[in-house]
Structure formats: C-alpha cells, structure tokens
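Because discrete structure vocabularies remain unfamiliar, we turn briefly to a single example record, giving the amino acid sequence and backbone structure tokens:
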Amino acid sequence: MGYKVAVVGATGNVGREMLDILAERGFPADEVVALASSRSIGTEVSFGDKTLKTKVLEHYDFSDTDICLMSAGGAVSKEWSPKIGAQGCVVIDNSSSWRMDPDVPLVVPEVNADAVAGFTKKNIIANPNCSTAQLVVALKPLHDAFGIQRVVVSTYQSVSGAGKDAMDELFSQTRAVFVTDPIEPKKFPKRIAFNLIPQIDVFMEDGFTKEEWKMMAETKKILDPKIKLTATCVRVPVFIAHSEAVNIEFEKPVTADEARDILREAPGCLVIDKREPGGYITPYEAAGEDATYISRIREDATVENGIAMWIVSDNLRKGAALNAVQIAEVLVNRKLIQPKAAKAA
C-alpha cells in the first residue's frame, strides 16, 4: 500500500516542481492529487508521464490523504494547514507562516532530520526560506567540526523566488531594453532587468528586510541559537538559483583544505573549487540540479578562524520543492506515518 499525496498550489512554480520531484524520486505514492484555487480548476499539470487535472482546494476532503505538500502562499497556509492537519494529514508547508511556531518543526533533512518527529503537535512541518535552506546545508558540517560563532552572508537571489509573475517581469523588461519599449516595474519596486535590487520582502523597524530577518531567525532555529548571523539580501536578474557570498568565523582554527575536505563528504553538498577561471559554480549551471554547490573556499585572515566561500543552489528545488519531498521521505523511511489506505484495509 502506497501513500496518498496532495500538492496544494500545483499550478505555481514550486508546485509544479514538487510534482516533478515526486515522480523523479519514485516517491511511494499510490495517488497524487493536484490542488489549486478555483480560478485554476481544470488546469492540467504534469506528474511523470501522467497529466493531472487540478481540483479545488476548498472542496477537497483530506481525511483519506496522508501527506499534503503546501505551496500556495502564506495566507492560504495560515487558513488551511491547521484544518488539513486536523483531518490527520501531515502538512509540509513551504510558506513562512509556520516556521517560527515553537510547535512546528523547521526542517532541512541533511541538517536536522530528527526534528521531523515533532510534527505530531500540529501535523505541520515547515520548510525554511529558500536562501536559508542552502546556507544551513553548507554550514552544518562545518559547525559540527569547528563551531560557528558568526556568519555574514550576502545573497544574490533569482527572480523565481518571487514567483512566475516575477520571472515574466524579468523577461519582458529585458526584451523592452532591446526594443526600447518603456519599462514598468510591477512585481519589483524598481526595474530588475540589468539591475540589482537590495530589497527582498518588506522593511522592518531596524532597517533589515523581512527576508534578512528570516535567514537570521531560521538559521538559529535549525542549526544553533547561539550562532550570530547578519544578512544582506539582493534580488538579481537571474531566472533560477540563488547564490550567496558567505563569511564564517569559527571557535576553532580551520584551514581552507580542512573545510573543503569536510564539505566534500557532507550530505547534499557538492564542492566545485578550482582556483582557475571558471573553476566555480554559477546559478546558470545549478538550475535544475539538487545539490548545494560550494566554491571559492578560502581562509579569511581579517578575523580569527575565518573562512569565506560561495554557495549556489536551485531555489525551486533544494530551496523549496526538493526539501519538502525529502521531509516526506523522512516521514516514510522512519515509519513516522502509515498509509491510511493500509489501516482501512
């Protein structure tokens, strides 16, 4: 007996990616249901070699569904995740709504898979922010070995992190530059084509943006509350994959070679680090891949026990859809949930 899985937000960037990854990884599902809002009813989405017609979330009964992958935005999740969880279906939520709830585990399987077991309080497990997910995959093995004290990170985040409309805006603005059409920012506060925007999400009272705060708070919850982290998050004119320039201060002495060796063996990490032109990863190459790529590993002599490095990952995959499916795999592999159909039989 396999599991019954629902994907909410199945017509969006991440929802479609979730369906692809469930099929790619051969997730043990007997049935997969695509759900979306009423305006998307009947829209067809791909699942492996099948085509699914989307059903309406509001009319769907979750009582016989085992796992719900939720990627429909914060407002939908806030309203629906508790209702779905109350019907005995485990929600793996991709929004920011539940991440900092003390009764909801915030999980990156390569980093803190054991935290998954805490799902029983609300039947909800949270996926971290896309920029946090790839960061902690790279930080975890180094923290275990040398003890991280402080992290300074600057992100270079692709437009897909802001949804399909944002990708369309980059495309149309880029075209407009070449044909000298007027450029109108809609999704972003300023033009994104051939430009950088040092604002992701809203500003907070202290001058940081909500995205920067998320990275700080989520890293502490997932990895270690004692780690100090400061972030500057920047939107760049790249379609897919987020990049991060990271500077880390450790408690113990560490060389670049030691860091490189540890990261080469770490789950989810792929080190591409040759000190020559092109001997590093770029977002273009990371798009469509599962790994968190690490390049430019070097010692930073301006602080004691410092390492600098470059991290790139596909934000739609490891930053969202892949991480959610990996959480579902932890639930199944550790036998934390049983298929409802098997119980009924």
Notes: The first strand starts at residue 3 and ends at 8. The CA atoms of residues 79 and 344 lie 28 Å apart. The chain has a mean pLDDT of 96.
